[in-house]
Amino acid sequence: MKRVAVTGIGLVSPLGDDANSVFEAARIGRSSVHRLQIEGSHRLAAPLAATVEFDGTRHFEPPQFRLLDRVSQFAVVAARRAVADSGNELSDAERERAGVFVGTGMGGILSIDEGYQTLYGKNSDRIKPMMILQGMHNAPAAWIGIDNDWRGPNLTYSTACSSSSAAIGEAWLRLACGAMDIAIAGGSEAPLSLGSLKAWEAMHTLASEDASDASRSCKPFSRSRSGMVLGEGAAFVVLESWERALARGAAIHGELLGYGLTTDAGHIARPSVAGQAAAMSAALAAAGIAADEVDAINAHGTGTQANDVAETAAIKRVFGARAGRIPISATKALHGHLLGAAGALEFVLSLLALQRGVALPTMHLDVPDPDCDLDYVAGVARVGAAGRTMLSNSFAFGGTNAVLALRAVD
Amino acid sequence: MTSLTFEDTEKRIRALLVRDFKLDPGGLTLDSRLDELGVDSIGMAELIFNVEDEFGLKLPDAAVQLSTFGEIVQFIHDAAADQRASAAPSSLAQGVNTST
């Protein structure tokens, strides 16, 4: 298997748009969760979200802009940033094999929501002719391919909250086996329509608002956690073969060592300790490393009752007596749950943590759940604690568990 | 219902093309092929949608296959006249009825 380098990072995130400021916000624990103001948000029990400051008209000419759902706008802009950061100039022959791997959970839900509002809400037949092209799940990937003229595999993964970890992992597989030399991989999500928020609310998965401070509403691993907060944004990386990166003198952010993918094949929504543990073990096996080489973990850590207890038990199952000594960071407390883009954003935060040797804090964890008794780096970042090797966990409704193993550059 | 001249129709469609597709009004003649000006098949679907709103018409699917600006203006001008004509007999019939 070939080694795979991460040479580019591109973000459109609730914590900011450039890697340094995003990392700094995460390090000091500055939450981007806030009260959401959209049409109809008063109908939500707890109108909370982590949003990005983004004006698509600054990035696209009007004829193209009208074709792009917000999810595609995020994706194209974040991918542009990742490619620019990587410093790549591809030859025509290289473009033939260059891949685009995108995760998204809800695709162009804002455009679909708007179309149905016209049809059912206003009882009008004036559905805009762009709705299909805006709403389809593969639009973000297609637009990234068009924008960069990358003509190799162009694939979209939709495995709910593990979508972008699966996308990054599947790109790794093809690069590691030599089927491709370079790929853009990551995820994008723009789920903040009233329709989707109400649907998430109906599942009783969303956090209630913190009485003292709305930005503290998502509390992974805390006894007082009440659920997740939805976020929006995109995160992409450029992955390429180690030889290619070295040959062109690229700055390497880190190494993607391997990827584990398992499926619970159990309950559609309830997480499985066995499935999650198996995914972490599979990532270790793919990376060719032992469990005791893992220095830190970025947890899926959604702040839901079910996830946090199951994930804690799964980490114990994989790491045994050492589990309690591994720093575990749950950054969703700060950037919300980006669903299909969550894994990619957390993979990037893990890379940045390794580069800087800092374990990021799990915020709003004042009183831990007795069943969540590991070291979650509560409240304050820990310098020198990230080590060299991390796992980034992503688990999902539907039961698809995707875990990425990554390492700092020596 | 007031009748629309060909020139009125041309002017209003030209305004839509300038507004929505940022076309240069000076470069847009009746012989201009819209695909060569960047209005592709998706753009045609959007143009037809906006024309339907602008003129209060419902156009057949065939409209998206039109090629030149002149063909589009003619098609829409004819369609507008047809829809006025199909609306007309009832008012004409009423007129006949009241006169007898």
Give an overview in words:
The complex is a heterodimer of chains A (410) and B (100). Chain A is of the alpha/beta class and 410 residues long. Chain A has two domains: 4-247, 3-Layer(aba) Sandwich (Peroxisomal Thiolase, Chain A, domain 1), CATH 3.40.47; 262-398, Thiolase/Chalcone synthase (Peroxisomal Thiolase, Chain A, domain 1, 3-Layer(aba) Sandwich). Helix content of chain A is 35%, strand content 18%. Chain A has helices spanning 19-28, 62-65, 70-86, 92-97, 109-121, 131-135, 139-148, 163-176, 194-202, 242-247, 273-287, 305-319, 332-335, 342-356; strands at 4-12, 33-35, 48-50, 99-103, 154-157, 182-189, 233-241, 254-263, 296-298, 328-329, 358-359, 382-383, 389-394, 400-407. In chain A, the strands form three sheets. A ten-stranded mixed sheet of chain A has the order 5-4-6-7-1-8-14-13-9-10, with helices on both faces. A two-stranded antiparallel sheet of chain A has the order 2-3. In chain A, strand 9, helix 12 (305-319) and strand 10 (328-329) form a beta-alpha-beta unit. In chain A, helix 1 (19-28) packs across helix 14. The longest helix of chain A has 17 residues, at 70-86. Chain A is globular and about 60 Å long. Residues 91-100 of chain B have low confidence and may be disordered. Chain B has a single domain (6-99), classed as Orthogonal Bundle (Non-ribosomal Peptide Synthetase Peptidyl Carrier Protein, Chain A). The longest helix of chain B is centred in the last third of the chain and has 31 residues, at 69-99. Chain B is globular and about 40 Å long. Classes of the chains: A alpha/beta (410), B mainly alpha (100). The interface between A and B is small, with 10 and 11 residues.
